[in-house]
Amino acid sequence: MKDLINKLYKNHSLIYKGLLFLCTSFLIVYLFPKSGKFRYNFEKGKPWQSENLYAPFDFAIKKTDEEIAFEKQNIIDNSVLYFDIDNSVESKVKNLYKEQFKKVFTDSLPVKSFQTVYNAGMDIIDELYSYGILNESYDYADTRIITLLADRTKKQDGFFGDLIKLDAVSPIISKVLESRELQAYKTNFTSLFFDIVEPNLTFDKSFTDKALEEELGKIAYTRGSIEKETLIISKGEVIEGDKYQVLKSLESEYESQVWTKSNYNWIIFAYTLLVALALLMLLLFLRKYRVEVFENNNKVTFIFFNVFLMVFMTTLVVNYNSEFVYVVPICILPLILKAFFDARLGMFTHVITVLLLGFIVPNSYEYTFLQIIAGIVTILTVSELYKRANLFISVGQITLIYIVAYFAFFLIHEGSIETIKWEMFKWFLLGGLATLFVQPLIYAYERIFGLVSDVSLLELSDTNSKLLKELSNKAPGTFHHSLNVANLAEASANEIHANAMLVRVGALYHDIGKMKNPTYFTENQSTGINPHDELSPKESARIIIDHVINGIEIAKKNNLPDRVIDFIRSHHGTNLVYYFYMKEKKEFEETGREPDLTDFSYPGPKPFSKETAILMMCDSIEAASKSLKEPTSTKIDAFVENIIDKQIEDGQFLNADITFKEIQKIKKVLKRKLANIYHLRIEYPE
Q1: Treating both helix axes as pointing N-terminal to C-terminal, what angle do 111-128 and 88-105 enclose, rounded to 10 degrees?
Q2: 352 to 58, 179, 338: CA distances (angstroms)
Q3: N or C: which end of the chain has fewer CB within 10 A?
Q4: Is residue 323 packed enough to be buried (19+ CB in 10 Å), middle (13-18) or exposed (0-12)?
Q5: Parallel, antiparallel or unpaired: strands 145-150 and 153-159
């Protein structure tokens, strides 16, 4: 059990990466569409790019959304309106008419006209209640079909225009009286019927809605069918009209068939394999070419998180409206990774991410091509992200590439620009503007993941910062030495295309540990008194060596990034404090013993990058150059060669990713810089 625990502890970093790999794979697969994916990409109005397509199985042709919407609206417009009729109202009104008629007309009618006028009133009632009177106004067309229900039993059919509204009673009275030439009695009849007429029709909304739902449920969502092996479309044929609808029907049927055949688990398994394969390639790239990143779990987590974030954002946008897919600023990914790591890692991760997004977006080939080209432009154009103008210029170039590439694709598909979708350019512009969000995002990542970008390095390079001010006050000689080393290191880094900003910052802070005991270092001894005269060589060496450890402590206390602290750790590698070692050795010669090398050696580690190797060379050259007497070009050349060759001989650069060719270039830079410092002219042969 103990052996197992020890084994797990030793391999905890690999176990973590394995869990991260699995979690990221499953999260990305979870975002993918969970049905089979139609193997062809097509767009309405564009030519069919693949070979002739034959129906793989029998399937029905689905109606378009517009056709179904038209049918639904037609059914709604022509649906029957149901009204409940109260038969007792008409009888009640007639009885009231009989009672009220005598009171209204007895004194004013001659005997012979009584029956004529009375009958006219009964005809008015019959006219009003031939279909019925509505209890309230409804806004329906007069041509809408109606059905009158008495106790839920169909009594009569007609049109909505046949029904009488309460405000239409007076015109009915006028019409009947006019036909009998009794217009003189209109006022009396109007007054009479105003008191006795009651509505007898009530709109039965629930019954009407139920009947409408039944009719809508009868709509057929397909029209016709395609038999297996039938030619659907030929290569080069334009996809429009029925051809487009047949293809959409085949795509929908294909995906629904995969779903209904319970192949869900197989689809998930296939997606998982592909996603895992892509992420595995990313891990292998880190393992082979970016070992320092691979061994840092925090950095690997950061890279995987950004890949997942881009997939997540794109999925949200595609699910909302796939037309907005280019608004997602995918080019932020290579920008961020280049800011924190390097261009090659940024480009590789970008390509992997775009390949994964091909499973989600429509027109995946076009999308993949556009995004990869945009990613390449991003990597090539953004050289110094901390310069705001560079970012704006790069965003403009990225947007232009999107527009040009989309324009080219459209011409390939259409052969003209007459039907080009100009609104797509608007989405490209919005996507370009969204890329500017990279600056606050970098700041957030620095705080969350503890990383450092060129923007932060620029801030750290300010010599008016608190820590460098303190260094200049407590150890002015060391501060001046650091400035000189920074200039040499920056020039050397530029010569071999290393990170010049990083190496400059590392050089500025590499000796901050000397602030603890500044007078023990020769560059700060302005009084001519050397405190080492009172100490043994071993004690002096310990104080000199401790400036590395003290520097690390001061750096951590002041929250300097790990990338900067690495320069403090490694700028002396495992070199000897040679002066005191030789002094101790000379004292030991009398006893015949040899000094212990560990007492005079820096703890390391050795430089493990081009930048840290550059600092070691420049630090040694600058410090030792103070001892040059009557320097000439020849002396300087030999001086630089001897110091750097000694470091190579001691194996100080074995862990650094630096070549002999690059070291030779650095030597040339240092020789030229020292010659400028000492105001030497090149010696020409006679």
Answers
A1: 150
A2: 38, 89, 15
A3: C
A4: middle
A5: antiparallel
Containing 231, the helix (H) or strand (E) segment is strand 231-233
pLDDT of residue 219: 85
Q: Which residue has the tokens 């650095």?
A: 666
Structure token pair of residue 540? 């002096």
Cα angle value 438/444/447 (rounded, 5°): 145
Give the list of residues 6+ apart from residue 607 with CB closer than 8 angstroms, or none.
570, 571, 573, 613, 615, 616, 652, 653, 655, 656
506, 567 contact by CB (below 8 A): yes
Q: What are the percentages of helix, strand and coil residues in the chain, rounded to 5?
A: 65, 5, 30
Within 10 angstroms of residue 152's Cβ, the number of other Cβ atoms is: 9
**Residues counted in the chain:** 686
User: What is the CB-side half-sphere exposure of residue 503 using CA atoms within 13 A?
Assistant: 30
Which is it for the CA torsion 249, 255, 258, 259, positive or negative? negative
Amino acid 267: pLDDT: 75
What tokens were used for 178? 């006019």
Question: If 0-12 CB within 10 Å is exposed, 13-18 middle and 19+ buried, where does residue 19 land?
Answer: exposed
Q: What are the tokens at 572?
A: 């002396």
At residue 631, the pLDDT reads 80
Could you tell me which of 347, 345, 310 has the C-alpha nearest to residue 330? Answer: 310
Alpha helices in 415-511, H assignment, sequence order: 423-435, 438-449, 454-460, 466-474, 476-495, 500-509
For helices 343-357 and 332-340, give the axis angle rounded to 10 degrees. Answer: 150
Instruction: Give the chain's residues under pLDDT 50.
Output: none
| pTM: predicted TM-score of the whole model, two decimal places | 0.61
What's residue 282's pLDDT?
A: 94
pLDDT at position 222: 80
Q: How many Å apart are CA 82 and CA 157, to the nearest integer?
A: 9
- For residues 159 and 145, give the distance between their C-alpha atoms in angstroms, rounded to a whole number: 4
pLDDT in tens, 227-240: 787 887 877 777 77
pLDDT given at position 508: 95
SS3 226: strand
Which of 339, 333, 400 is CA-nearest to residue 370? Answer: 400
Separation between Cα atoms, residue 656 and residue 567, nearest integer Å? 13
